[in-house]
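User: Pre-mRNA-processing ATP-dependent RNA helicase PRP5, Ajellomyces capsulatus:
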Amino acid sequence: PGRMIDLLAANAGRVTNLRRVTYVVLDEADRMFDMGFEPQVMRILGNVRPQRQTVLFSATFPRNMEALARKTLAKPVEIIVGGKSVVAPEITQIVEVRNQDTKFVRLLALLGELYADDKNEDARALIFVDRQEAADGLLRDLMHKGYPCMSIHGGKDQVDRDSTIDDFKAGVFPILIATSVAARGLDVKQLKLVVNYDAPNHLEDYVHRAGRTGRAGNTGTAVTFLTEDQERYSVDISKALKQSGQPVPEPVQKLVNSFMEKVKAGKEKASGSGFGGKGLERLDQERDAARNRERKTYKTGEEGEEEEREEKKDKKDDLFSKAASAVQATATPAPTPGVPKSIDLDGKITVHKTEKPTPTSTSTNNPLDKVGSAVADIHARLNKAGVMRSGVPIDNKGPDAGAFHATLEINDFPQKARWAVTNRTNVAKILEATGTSITTKGSFYPAGKEPQPGENPKLYILVEGDTELVVTNAMRELMRLLKEGTLAAADSESRAPTTGRY
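Assistant: Predicted structure for Pre-mRNA-processing ATP-dependent RNA helicase PRP5:
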């Protein structure tokens, strides 16, 4: 997603855009909203036209990921084929509890049984391990036994991974050793055997690994090796067997019972869901923390300048956070930049349905009556010109008014914040992204001054659109720009030089 965002942002969005995209498909959607991708995926979807159809596919969808994905959808329809997080009935599942030193011998026996049958001459086998080193080590051992095979994992370049998968599909080699990077998206028709050499650590990973075989009505076999010390993983594997209607072997059930007793006694914690990516920022934080630990461990006395720079940076970050918190805590409109108390930029956005004027039926065609009615209408509007209820503008009832509208008062925000939501470039981007109409209305009043009866209301923005969703999206973007402008104003205010030249 990051590369796509770079392409969309190149040359101020003039290289390419998604305004003509009407059909969006997210495959393996549960992982796309996890693993730190969620902010990037949301940014890409925010650049697609609102009148689109969005389709999400996945064999597994945990509840927390489903709730996150529904934020991108409007009145979604859910279609479940077979079952959610369930292994297909065409797949024979075998789970064996054995020692670590017997797993390789058992793997050779499984491969020998597979290729001993002439019908399986063109069959493929996929072996899953948990680490990159284990993949390369197993590759070396199988090559010594005369089995042509290759391995793929996250430590290899994308080009190498793509070429390896193409060769595997074409039958250049019949056996592929992989980490969980190959658990999703791999579709090989001749794949008859999947071996979980190292047990998967959560339910969804097991379902996707087993789902590499038995595709499109074909049959297949999924064999999983469990060791005595992997009783934590036995809970999810037994759950997958029960959900797919297959019996749980007695040794596996013993591991499950043993682990659950430890959980009840407080000696162990229940296994996690396998989801919960913290975002790409987490990687930077971990790198910085490791760097600080190394600096303290191998201190030589010559890093004073670098530490001083780090301290200055920390102080600067503290000042910025204090300024941001001060801006958010501003109580009343004042000359200092801040968010007005009456406006909550993080609150719920209220969108109103526009009331279309009902044509008044007149029993007479007298022109004087029509003129009198028009004058009375003008007087009524002038009398309430200085009064503006939140979300109900005074002049959006004409024939061109949108079906839904919302208002955002910007009069009491700092000048930088007002400029951020009224300059032509930012407004044009929001118009293109949402298809709404954005109009600046009212008059600007300095701090402490209120509009008198008969005067225009305070400066505000009117957002109109055909649907409630597009108006909400436009309002959310305007609020984001207001917040950024307010923080920028507070930052520049705190860094403003003192008066005097020297």
